[in-house]
Task: structure prediction
Amino acid sequence: MAVYGYVRVSTIQQAKEGDSLEAQIKQVTSYASSRGLDLEESSVFVERGVSGGLEFNSRPEGSKLLRVIQSGDVLIFPKLDRGFRNTRDALNTLHLLKERNCSVHSIDLGGDVTGNGVGAIIFTILSAFASFERERIASRISEVKQMRKSQGYFVGGRRGFGFNIKDGKKVPNMKEQKLIVEMKKKRANGESILAIHRWLNDEKGVKLNYSSLRLIVI
Result:
């Protein structure tokens, strides 16, 4: 029987600072010791800077862990949300491990969640709540971004042609705005988008991809 641990932090900054990872590793090793399970620190799979939005089997360390864990082995998570993206991901992974006759322990749920007792019921319920909370947070972030975008703030992605970013807000780039006016005039006079694209790139020396130009002039 082999014993494994799995810990994760979602940002590179957290991974560099190490505090969260160190605390999680200590949690799983202490838990294993208290249960008489022989867990070496080298057997703890550490997922650094990986979003919880990825399903367990799509993560570098998660997929590696699923390849090595065998019948009779034990897997320990410090917390439910370190392991799984949502209820479906949690239950699918748990089902896979149960089929392999592996035991899965989640410390925040009090222990083994692969049996048929209270731990398994709590696992299912809390998986649902964890999924709901993650979706609620994602929705709230999206709403805030949309609100800030409507207020003229830059919320990430590529800088739009015709604008610069100053103090977090989009401000007109006058040189590019003049080019936009010229491009729209050319289009209104019947020139093709391809011809305008060539004019902008060849004559004006401005590199703008075709799809972005098309959105501007149509």
User: Anything to note?
Assistant: The first strand starts at residue 3 and ends at 8.
